[in-house]
Write a structure and sequence with these properties.
By secondary structure, the protein is α+β, with helices and mostly antiparallel strands. The chain has a single domain, classed as Immunoglobulin-like, CATH 2.60.40.1080. The chain contains three helices and twelve strands, in the order αααββββββββββββ. The longest helix is centred in the first third of the chain and has 16 residues. The N and C termini lie far apart (94 Å).
């Protein structure tokens, strides 16, 4: 081995360098989280207006309340944007990302997803009362981001009480 290194130093070291380079490179199938950066927060839009935002570990609501008000049996068009570390909004474009929406209690608020935009959905209150909504950025078989709870109060329309 010493003779090989002594007689052919350049090809030997070039081979080692090439081998090290090849083994350090990933494949296209690798999902490096640094590639896209995990979200730091979330912005929730209802009927194209910002209604709530999770930023710096806090959920705030634009109407000044500590929850969202939704009316029973109305499909409310909604959309989420994720926030990066600078607070800029983004929606991942890659196919292996999707949105998950959960309600606690289950079924109080249901979500129907848009067929044309995976970040758009409709929320519908199915029963009166409070619910906590959680949003997830799903990346293949796991969540890259899980929001804090967004509180929703489901109420009957005033005109339904007549």
């Amino acid at each position: 081995m010493k003779d090989l290194i002594k007689n052919f130093p350049f090809p030997f070291f070039a081979f080692l360098f090439t081998l090290g380079f090849i083994t350090s490179c990933g494949t296209e199938d690798d999902h490096d989280h640094e590639e896209h950066g995990d979200p730091e927060g979330l912005a929730l839009y209802v009927e194209e207006a910002l209604v709530a935002k999770q930023e710096n570990g806090n959920v705030t609501y634009t109407d000044g309340d500590d929850h969202l008000h939704l009316h029973m049996d109305e499909a409310i068009p909604s959309e989420v944007y994720f926030l990066d570390e600078d607070g800029d909004e983004f929606q991942p474009e890659e196919d292996h990302y999707s949105l998950g929406v959960e309600s606690d209690p289950a079924g109080r608020v249901s979500s129907t997803f848009s067929s044309s935009d995976k970040w758009e959905f409709s929320m519908r209150c199915n029963s009166e009362g409070a619910a906590d909504i959680t949003f997830k950025l799903l990346h293949d078989d796991h969540a890259d981001f899980v929001s804090q709870d967004f509180e929703v109060i489901c109420e009957v329309h005033d005109d339904q009480n007549d």
